[in-house]
Amino acid sequence: MLSDVVDRLACPHCGSALELEGSELGCERGHGFDVARQGYVSLLPGSGQAASGDSAEMVAARQLFLDAGHYDALVGAVAAEVVRTRERGPVECVLDVGAGTGHYLAAGLDAAPGAVGIAVDASKPAARRAAGAHPRIGSVLADVWQQLPVREGSVDVALTVFAPRGPSELRRVLTPHGALVVLTPTPRHLGELVDTLGLLRVDERKPERLADAMAGTFVRGRHGVVEQTMQLRHADVAALVGMGPSAWHLSTAARADQVAALPEVVAVTISVQVSVYHPAP
Ligand SMILES: C[S@@+](CC[C@H](N)C(=O)[O-])C[C@H]1O[C@@H](n2cnc3c(N)ncnc32)[C@H](O)[C@@H]1O
Ligand SMILES: [Zn+2]
């Protein structure tokens, strides 16, 4: 709930501490933010939604796919990194930027008893779902390309899973012993569907670009690739396509025809790089 995390949030206008009063978050300079009926708060400095947030259909497809357990190996990898961070120091707060439905953050919180979680996403439908994903999550609508509405040094583990990230802001909000856990697809990820359904291809240079973006701000620690084969039925494939960036590029009817033409069960590769970064000294 928001009340669990409010003391770690910051006013997007002036950076001051926020307090929860009734159904409003407010700062000492008089800026106020209404808590939505569904339990999240918008800390976007302007009005409305950031441009790049996922649609309600994409978020619903993502929830279906994740709840079916197809990405449990990735969820397990995230939880394992939370446990490793606890071996180095206390984990009292986990932040997930581009949190989507809050599925990974919920698993991270289960791996850190008593810790609170901040879910940040630019999509209202995502922020709504994340608010209900775990009792210790506070869900915030915000844009990761702007200043994060989170107080300096208040986060022990930050997650970014298939999501955009701004290194300097993540560095600012992490504690010195904190860890940033980044999951990015390798060019082999979903390869079978990239070929047959014409999904967007992962840039071969993505690992290099990630390393460049982090250099100077973070040092890379543990890293490895989670690779596995999923056996997907048509409904799973439809959800997987519907939740991803390729959903923007073809009409629903055209996509449904393509999926119907696939074998009843399709073997699809998961190949995801898991990298842990620590704040540079
Ligand atoms: C591919 S989804 C991943 C969601 C979640 N991490 C997961 O793996 O299930 C990317 C997420 O980033 C969010 N997003 C996109 N642009 C954003 C931005 N500028 N600020 C915050 N979130 C953003 C989208 O709304 C979406 O929920
Ligand atoms: Zn303020």
UniProtKB/TrEMBL annotation:
Residues 10-45 form the 23S rRNA (guanine(745)-N(1))-methyltransferase N-terminal domain. Signal peptide: none annotated. Residues 94-178 form the Methyltransferase domain. Keywords: Methyltransferase, Transferase. The keyword Methyltransferase applies. Coiled coil: none annotated. Pfam families: Methyltransf_25, Zn_ribbon_RlmA. GO terms for molecular function: methyltransferase activity. GO terms for biological process: methylation. This is Methyltransferase domain-containing protein.
